[in-house]
Amino acid sequence: MRTTQRLLRSGLTVAATAALPLVLSAPAAVAWGSGISVSTSGTSVSVTTSACPSNGSSFGNASLLSSGQTNFAQGRQMPLTGTSSNQSAAWTGVSPGTFTVIVVCQDGTTAGTQSIIVASTAASTAPATPTISTTVSPSPSRGVMGGLGGAVKDYGTATVVGGGALVVTGTVAAVWFLRRRSKPHRL
User: Fold this and answer.
1) Sorting pLDDT into bands at 50, 70 and 90, what band is 27?
2) For residue range 123-160, what is the model confidence (pLDDT) as tens digits?
3) Is residue 141 part of a domain?
4) What are the record keywords, sorted (predicted)?
5) Is 127 within the bounds of a domain?
6) CATH number, domain containing residue 56
7) Which end of the chain is least crowded, N or C, by CB within 10 Å?
């Protein structure tokens, strides 16, 4: 009976230890999917990013695709403007509906893709609250994590490696502690 309980306890410990890194890394994997932030106000849609470097004359282009449009060239394209740390584009007079915003940098890489719903404001005088849904797209070469309110924070390789090392260290320490605790103490 004691052997069965010990095996069950160690099996649960191993399962929890194996699942811990997956649980801790899952939100970051989803969050790294988009390097852009899209917002709407009335009939205007804007996009911001910090993922597109300049070649001296251009940062790249953003495209607003309505439902039924499937590639970048079919949408309403706008050039990205701004600085090396923050680029943006905007569209006005956007009719209500579901749209996809795609940002392609001047070097041909896709900074991100997001879907957005522009609500009808004809029924009320106050602007409607937009509904934004994010779709996973190719990520930039470095990890980008979307924060609350569309804030973007870029984590370098050293930060990601350091965080991974902390997760592994914590997992090993937890396994050691639980195994040590489950062994019977002999006098």
Assistant:
1) very low
2) 444 455 555 555 555 545 544 444 444 455 556 777 77
3) no
4) Membrane, Signal, Transmembrane, Transmembrane helix
5) no
6) 2.60.40.2840
7) C
The whole-model pTM stands at 0.48
Answer whether residue 183 is part of any domain: no
Residue 44, CA distances (Å) to 28, 71, 97, 110 in order:
30, 21, 12, 23
pLDDT digit string, tens, across residues 66-91: 988 888 999 999 999 988 889 999 99
Count of domains observed in the chain: 1
